[in-house]
Amino acid sequence: MNFHTRKWIKPQDLNPNRSLFGGRLLEWIDEEAALYAIIQLENPRTVTKYISEIDFKASAREGDIIEIGLEPVKFGTASITLKCEVRNKMTRETIITIDKIVMVGLDEEGNAKAHGKTQIEYVKNRLEV
C-alpha cells in the first residue's frame, strides 16, 4: 500500500462527538482515488463508479494526523480498481479499509472510454525517451 497523502484533523473535520466526521474522510478518500486514477488512466474525465462496503474500525481526534493509502488491484477496459486503507499516524490504528473502489474514464459524451492500460505506470517511466 502506498501512503502518499496525509491530513491533519482540524476542528472543521469533526462530528458532534468531537471525532473525525465520516463524511469528511470519505470525501478525502474519493478525491485521492480520483487523482490517482486520473494520473494512471491519463484521463481527466475519470469518475467514481463503485465503492464497496465501508467499515470504520477506529477514528481520529482533533490534532491527529492520518494517512490515506491506495493500491491498484486491477485494470478493466475503461476502469481501474483500487483498495484503500486509512490509518491514524498518532495512534497507529487503522481507521478504515475499503476493498474495492472502481474509477472509470469517460469520453466527452460521458461514455466509458477504453484506456489500453494493463499495469501501473510511474511518471519517471512516461518521461523516458
Automatic annotation (TrEMBL):
One of its GO terms (biological process) is fatty acid catabolic process. It comes from the Bacteria. GO terms for cellular component: cytosol. InterPro entries: Cytosol_ACT (IPR040170), HOTDOG_ACOT (IPR033120), HotDog_dom_sf (IPR029069), Thioestr_dom (IPR006683). Pfam families: 4HBT. Keywords: Hydrolase. One of its GO terms (molecular function) is long-chain fatty acyl-CoA hydrolase activity. Residues 1-109 form the HotDog ACOT-type domain. Belongs to the acyl coenzyme A hydrolase family. This is Acyl-CoA hydrolase.
